[in-house]
Write a structure and sequence with these properties.
This protein has seven helices and 13 strands. The chain is of the alpha+beta class. The strands form three sheets. Strands 1, 2, 3, 4, 7, 10, 11, 12 and 13 form a nine-stranded mixed sheet that branches. It has a two-stranded antiparallel sheet with strand order 5-6. A two-stranded antiparallel ribbon has the order 8-9. The longest helix is centred in the first third of the chain and has 16 residues.
Length: about 230
């Protein structure tokens, strides 16, 4: 069990973020619980890489002096698993928004699906989703999107070292991706659908690894809190 001094001197906490929680909520919750458990007035707590509310999985949370390592952890490669739905797109590229367009899928074979993954391995240029937290002119992109305002988004170079489709169930594809910092899996879903001359969107996402940190070693927020001393 961690002590007050452990948290103040710095800890790296591996948390399995639940569905619908924001990364900000997870950090706030843990900070409050740590402060409450040890009567700490002030402690630095931050995360090394945001997960969308509709994603689950590994959130690396740093406390105390370990918050200085956040940039190092953020820069490490990440692994994700999840599900794409073929034949339709959404404005957010995931289930945050409703399906807006449908596309033909009759021409798509298992062989075409597997061979198309090769187009995305290596260094690629990717457009972030308009529904993202990237800032432009002092505002986050999703603020423009929700207001229905057009905004020019620049592509960015990312690297995908592994991309495989692990299961095909009609229009539902399960995948595994290993990628660099800054890669949007929602954008990968959208671009993969286009490459198949159809459409696709992300229906589930789980981060399984950041560098050497694995979600298998992570605790849910509830399990972490249960290990703290109770008042």
């Amino acid at each position: 069990m961690h002590t007050k001094d452990d948290f103040l001197s710095g800890q790296v906490l591996l948390i399995d973020k639940p569905l619908t929680w924001t990364s900000f909520q997870a950090v706030n919750k843990l900070r409050w619980e740590i402060r409450h458990a040890f009567d700490i007035k002030k402690i630095k707590v931050g995360h090394a890489g945001t997960l969308d509310p509709l994603a689950t999985g590994l959130l690396v949370i740093c406390t105390g002096k370990m918050t200085k390592q956040i940039n190092v952890f953020q820069g490490q490669e990440k692994e994700y698993t999840g599900t794409f739905i073929l034949g339709s797109t959404t404005p957010s590229f995931d289930l945050e928004t409703e399906v807006d367009k449908s596309f033909p899928t009759e021409h798509i074979t298992d062989e075409l699906i597997h061979s198309t993954t090769q187009q995305f391995i290596g260094q690629i240029n990717q457009f972030p989703p308009v529904f993202s937290a990237i800032k432009k002119d002092g505002k986050r992109l999703y603020e423009f999107a929700r207001a229905g305002e057009e905004v020019e988004i620049k592509s960015r170079q990312v690297e995908i070292t592994e991309f495989e489709i692990t299961k095909i169930d009609q229009l539902e594809l399960q995948f595994r991706v290993v990628c660099s910092k800054g890669t949007y899996i929602r954008s990968l879903a959208h671009d993969f659908g286009k490459a198949l001359k159809s459409g696709a969107h992300l229906s589930s996402l789980r981060r399984t690894r950041i560098g050497d940190f694995k979600v298998d070693d992570a605790l849910t927020p509830e399990a972490f809190i249960a290990n703290l001393p109770s008042k």
